[in-house]
Design brief:
Elements: E1 4-10, H1 15-32, E2 39-45, H2 48-62, E3 74-77, E4 84-88, H3 89-92, H4 97-113, H5 126-134, H6 139-164, H7 169-178, H8 183-192, H9 196-217, H10 227-241, H11 246-262, H12 267-278
Parallel strand pairs: 1-2, 2-4
Antiparallel strand pairs: 3-4
Helix pairs in contact: 1-4, 4-6, 4-7, 6-9, 6-12, 8-9, 9-10, 9-11, 11-12
């Protein structure tokens, strides 16, 4: 059964972009069968301000307190119980075609794997809470880290799923387009480096780009990723974490590898495991 796409356009969006998005999603869902969702709402908005205002209003109505959409080209959610993809036309216009397709496929993977509300509600196990308390991390901060890490784990799962379906070149192009260190991250680290809780939160946020790209590096052995692409991706990750001390970089990468080695096919277990492992950064 084909996935039903409910496409909603807001503002001046070209017919070409709409066609590209619909075609890419339809092709993905044919390939994802039988995991493809029955229905996906697709909102295509013309400007960044429209997307951010819409998301802000939705969160207010639903009582959602998480943030982070400012950096997204497009995003996926299931806040209303069904998968929804929101694409921002002016942000997508800055990408080349392969990276645009990669961005859309990334959200399609999320809709197939994380297309219900249960994937946006995560708890913290008693064992993890105890481990955090011992290390001097209070519960409100641990809950902030949980958000960062749940996003990171779901990104890992989405990329891994796309690699499994041979969507590799587009994911490399997408990753190379979006992985850029921000001045805000560098400034945040400067003020956080001597404060245990703030430093932990900064490093927990850095798990996202590393886990997002990790499955792409696993394609090296099967020669599906070239040496130059490997170098380019590696350099981009180095840039993303280059503002923290070398010893911290090594520890961050080691924790990431420990997380990947322990992941299963259960997203909730994966998030709890990753959160507990992240406390090794403290």
């Amino acid at each position: 059964m084909a996935t039903e796409l409910d496409v909603i356009v807001k503002g001046k969006v070209s017919g070409g972009l709409k066609k590209e998005i619909v075609h890419t999603l339809e092709e993905c869902y044919r390939k994802f069968s039988p995991k493809a969702p029955e229905r996906v709402e697709v909102q295509i908005v013309d400007r960044t301000a429209i997307m951010l205002d819409f998301l802000k209003e939705e969160k207010f109505r639903l009582g959602i307190t998480t943030g982070g959409e400012d950096e997204f080209l497009c995003c996926h959610d299931a806040w209303r119980g069904f998968p929804r993809i929101i694409v921002c036309a002016d942000r997508m216009a800055a990408l080349n075609k392969l990276a645009r397709v990669g961005a859309i496929r990334h959200e399609a993977a999320h809709s197939a794997l994380h297309g219900s509300l249960e994937y946006y509600i995560f708890g913290i196990s008693e064992g993890c809470q105890h481990q955090a308390k011992v290390k001097g991390i209070d519960l409100p901060l641990l809950e902030q880290a949980l958000y960062f890490i749940s996003v990171a784990v779901k990104d890992f799962e989405a990329t891994k799923y796309l690699v499994k379906h041979e969507y590799i070149k587009c994911q490399i192009a997408f990753a190379l387009s979006v992985l850029q260190p921000s001045e805000e991250d560098k400034l945040a680290w400067k003020s956080a480096r001597t404060k245990r809780q703030a430093r932990y939160l900064c490093e927990a946020a850095l798990l996202k780009p590393i886990l997002f790209t990790h499955p792409l590096f696993s394609s090296i052995d099967s020669k599906k990723i070239s040496l130059q692409q490997q170098v380019d991706l590696g350099s981009r990750i180095e840039n993303m974490i280059g503002h923290i001390e070398e010893s911290e970089q090594k520890r961050l990468l080691q924790v990431t590898n420990n997380i990947v080695d322990g992941l299963t096919n259960d997203t909730h277990s994966n998030v709890d495991f990753a959160l507990c492992q992240s406390l090794e950064l403290v």
